[in-house]
Amino acid sequence: DAMVIQNPRYQVTQFGKPVTLSCSQTLNHNVMYWYQQKSSQAPKLLFHYYDKDFNNEADTPDNFQSRRPNTSFCFLDIRSPGLGDAAMYLCATSRVATGGRNEQYFGPGTRLTVT
Amino acid sequence: AQKVTQAQTEISVVEKEDVTLDCVYETRDTTYYLFWYKQPPSGELVFLIRRNSFDEQNEISGRYSWNFQKSTSSFNFTITASQVVDSAVYFCALSDLYSGAGSYQLTFGKGTKLSVIP
Which residues in B lie closer than 8 A to residue A102 (C-beta atoms)? Predict the structure, then answer.
């Protein structure tokens, strides 16, 4: 019954070593989001895709990139992880609707550790 | 600019007590949506409720109830007869009108960590 799936759940990478996190969804939603959540903080939106259109938040570092090869999958690439990038990364999806009423459905998250 | 304030950082209650989580928001939009999410220790954010700005009816779902008061810009969440499984971080969030590219940003509060003690 899983609707938003994230792999892996835990990822350890070395300082500066590129890492890719993956997200897939079975909801057929138009929009997919990537959030970064650090300890005891609210999720922070990094970027989102509306279908194939990529929308980057103004304060998202260039170190973070994303790919969406099809409706079901979305990837988060961190080109050169720093110690400050250690966090929980949450993927979410939503169905396009007018007026902002579309709730977002979140995956279980990938906890990234940078050593 | 939008803002969501959850003034309670942490709350501890004994099992079976009622507890209310406060949420106050700011927006200049006349049409907006409010949400509550639960984040248990496993990390997944679980959608609980959505409320639009034109519907001020309170809602009850089992042990959960929500009180939306537009006059005070508040959207409070009450858990009745709390249980240990309610222990989690609860986030209140606000979404405004279409902001481009068919998606709607969620402005989250900082969350309230609820601990229910057996």
Answer: 104
The separation between CA B59 and the C-alpha centre of its own chain, rounded to angstroms, equals: 13
Q: Which residues, other chains included, contact A52 with Cβ-Cβ below 8 Å and sequence gap of 6+?
A: A68
Express as a percent the part of chain A with pLDDT over 70. 93
Give yes or no for A34 touching B (CB within 8 A): no
Beta bridge partners, B20, equal: B78
Give the pair of three-digit tokens for residue A11: 């990822």
Q: How far apart are CA A109 and CA B88, in angstroms?
A: 16
Nearest to A111 by CA among A3, A24, A8, A23: A8
- Altogether, the residues listed in chain A come to a count of 115
Gap between the Cα atoms of A9 and A31, Å rounded = 22
Interface test with B, best of A103, A106, A110 (most B CBs within 10 A): A103
pLDDT in tens, B7-23: 999 999 999 999 999 99
Look at residues B105, B87, B85, B108 and name the one whose alpha carbon lies nearest to residue B96: B105
Q: Which of A42, A99, A103 sits opposite B31 (nearest CB)?
A: A99
Which residues does chain A have within 8 Å of residue B6's beta carbon, measured at their own beta carbons?
Answer: none
**pLDDT for A98 beyond 70:** no
From B81's Cα to the closest Cα of chain A, the distance in A is: 26
